[in-house]
Each structure stands twice: as structure tokens, then as C-alpha cells.
Structure prediction request, 556 residues.
Amino acid sequence: MSIPISSQGPSVTRRDLLRRSASAAALAALGSTAPSLSRVASAQSPKRGGTLTLRLWDPPHWDPYLIIAFKTQIPYSFTHSRLIKHKAGPAIAPGTFPFEGDLAESWSQPDDTTYLFKLRRGVRFHPKPPVNGRELTAEDVVYSMERFRTVTGNPQAYMLAALDKVEALDRYTVKFTVKEPYAWFLDMLANPMTLAIVARECVEKFDDLKKPEAVVGTGPWMLDSYRPNVGYTLVRNPNYFLAGLPYIDRIEVFVDEDNGSRIAAFLGGKYDLGWEFPGSINRTDWVQIKEQLKRRRPGLQTVEYPTNVAIKVIMRTDRAPYSDVRVRRAMSHALNRQGLIEAVLEGGGVTNGAVPAALKEWALPVDQLGEGSRYYKFDPVEARRLLAEAGYPRGFSTVMDFHNFGSTVLVDAMQLVIKDFKDVGIEVKLNQKEYGAFISSTAVGNYEGIYFGPATPFLDPDSYLYTIYYPGHPRNIARINDPALTEMLVRQRRFSDPARRRAVIHDIQRLIAGQQYLLEAYSAVLIFAWDNALKNYGPNLGYDYGGRLLSAWLDR
Prediction:
């Protein structure tokens, strides 16, 4: 069934990846087929119009303040604005996230705990009920921030935990006061996961923002219709506050959870971006279809870059046996990380410390993690010795929560991880969950033993460290409590000087590597792909599809 949103006022089969390993020659050949990304904006004149087609995901519901699901947060990047955002386009290198104004035309920091934002004048909400195109003001920012941090059920309210108060000084000026110096505050405001500015009228009419009719923002596109489990349509906002933007008139989004169907659709030219997050193609699928793509989509643009989606094994460190560091180190030795990368990623992957390699300005390579580097070595003999020393000479049994996120690669990896653990005496019972159940339980810390899968792809190191390791934090689903680590997590937030902050963050990564509180498995090296007709587009990490397409246009 299609739900209109009022605007009133041939199948391809993957081969069996588990039987294969990549060779250096195959990787070299793959690299030679992927053209490098130009770092200069296209000199071609922009063109207005056209329809862009994407494969994305069906939102569990439409309220980004009440869920941590990327399936909801990605569409909000098209329909809503934030105070500040990350720059996008061909000139921005993947893995970097410089700021620019979104609703804010300027901002300043008078002291360590105060931020002032001057809003653009004349910004209007979409011409849809119940807001009907009224002007956005400072009161809307205050309302959104207060709802975000106080509404019952927001799993990401912690993002504004440092905020003491937010005030509208006048119609176009907003003042934020934080409780103590917090060097990552602007990163939180720019984060495309949440903190979209919403309209009070929508919440008051619908009680929350879960219904598609409540999706009324100030963003470059408007939600026109929603077809549950099928897709949705976005149309250009004629009153967008940046004159002339966006160039693309219409975006058609399709939901397709069958990998063979997605591949066939992409080969046929249906999708303008790669069908996997965030606009990429799995390397295993790429190797399978690259020769067909040369013939059928010869102008396809590609670039490679490591993803910030880190695949991990997370465990309850507040319970035996995982409270024993020897058990955690044994489990780390049991993981054949390179074998995983070769088997499921055709060799195109990296092993991370606590901060993914994609955030190269902050991440330490594994070989620079000090004494903790040793625990990344695949060593089943040492794993069994450590288990015996910890009192588990015959191993133990556990339950692994798992959701596949529609990824056959993740399913393959899960099977290999279970085998690696079994080989050292750890018997794993798989507990597969559908997405809604997973997001509302495992992802917020309600699981029995361990969890295997992707962690949230944050865009700053603080979110990978403080968020995941600080005691009592709602995203600390491993229940980690290490006083020395806690002190360092707080200290790095107080340094405005990036060099001083980086030094502490490096020390944090070394401490974590020694303790193996989480088992870092791998991150893929993505193959971003986009149609040659899409101009002035630059791929990057994260949920901000709308931001990356804002200034792009179609030439076909």
C-alpha cells in the first residue's frame, strides 16, 4: 500500500565465498580497475531536474529521537537540517569531516563552556500540514534540543549529556552552555545520526514523529509518499533556504533485501549509487560482477576507502567468564582475523584498534598498540592455554546474538567466527534476531553472552571511546568499568588542542588493546560506486546521504 504524504499550501547468484581466499594478484587487478576519485569539483554547469534512484532500507518508524536505527536516520538527512553539518563534495577526502553551517550562518565560542549560533533568516519548514511552511526560529532549536534530551525512550540522549542549558536569546540567536569543557561538542551537533531540528506542531499533532506524515523538516527534499517494505519517494523542496539547491528533483528509494535481486538491479542501471551502506558495493560482489559492469555500465565511477563500520565481538565483561582478562585474550587469539578478511572480503579489509582505521587522523594501527598488539595474533594454542589458566580447560558454552542486516558477507563471517571459537573449545549457540528485536534489545545491552556484528559507524574518536567504554554509559553494552581508562576518557575531552587530545586518545587505544574488552575483528575496504551521470558527487562515510547529494546533479 502506498501512503501519500500531503503536500498541501535477471537474478545473479553469489558464489560460495567460504571456499575462496583472495590472492595478491586478484587484489592488484581489482585496484587497477577502480579509478581514483578526483578531488576537484566538476567544472560542468549544474543541471536541474531528474530522478535519482537508490536502494536503502525500510524505517522501523520515522522518529529519529526514539531509535538508534540507521534505517530511520538516513532518510532524515534528506528531509531535515541541523545547526551545522559536514562539508561534502568531490573536494572532501573520505574519512574527513570539516564543519560548515547548516541552519546556522555563523557560530562562536566566547569561552570554554559557551557556544553562540546565529541562524539564517527566512528558513521555512516544508509547505505541509501541520507546519505549513512557517519560518524556523531559535525557539525551534531550543524545542528540538530539549525534546531530544528529555523525551522518554531516546537511546541517544547521551549525545547531549554535556549540555547544561540551551536558550533562545532572540528570534535568530541560540546559546548553548555545557557543564564543563567538551572538545567534541560541535561534532555532536553536526552528527547526521540525530539532532535534526524538528517542528513542535508535528509532535503535538501525532504525539511523536513515528508516522510518515510527521516527517516535516527544513531539508532539501520532502517525503512525498511511503510504501511500507517497498520504498519511499522524496521530492525537491521548492523553498529550500540555499538558493537553487537541490538540483535533483526526485529521489526514488527502493527496499530490497535480496542480494541477487540487488545485484541484478544494479547491473541493469536501476540504482545510481552502490546498494550497500553508504553507497558502496561489497568487494565479494564486485569481484563477481566487475567484468559485466565494464560492459553494461562502462562509465561507473569508483573509489576505495576503509569503512568506519567495525565488525566486533562484544561480550558481557561484568559476568564470568568474560570478566577474566585471560578469557578475553584467549578469545582474541582464537579469531583468525586475516582468514576472515581473505574469506569474506577477498582480502580487502583491515584490522582495527578501538578507533577504526578509517579515522586515520586519530586511529593507531594494530602494530602500534604496544604490548596489546600481541593479542591480535591468531594463536589457537595460546588461546587454549589461557582458557585453561583461567579455569576453563575444556572451554565453555555461550550464546551469540546476531542480526544479518541484509548482508550475506556478515552471515559468512559469523559462521567463521563460530568455527574459530569452537576450535579452541568455546561452543556457541546462535541467537538470530529480526531487526526490530535486535535494535530494541541487543543493541542497547540486553543480551546473554556475546554479540557479533557491526558497531555504530561514528564519525569521531570520542564516540568510539567515551561512548563505548565509560561506566554506566547507555552505549557501554559490554558493561566495562576500568578506573584508569575512565580517567583518560574524561581527560581527552577537556583538551581543545588536537595534538594533546590525540596523545591521550593514542594511550587509550593501547590500554584497551591490552585488556581486549571488545574483540575487534575487521573493517572492510569499501568500493564506493556511483553512476557517471551523477556529477559533483563525492562519497564519504556516515549516514548523510542527503548532504552528499545536496549539490550533485544528473546529466542524462
Notes: The CA atoms of residues 89 and 148 lie 29 Å apart.
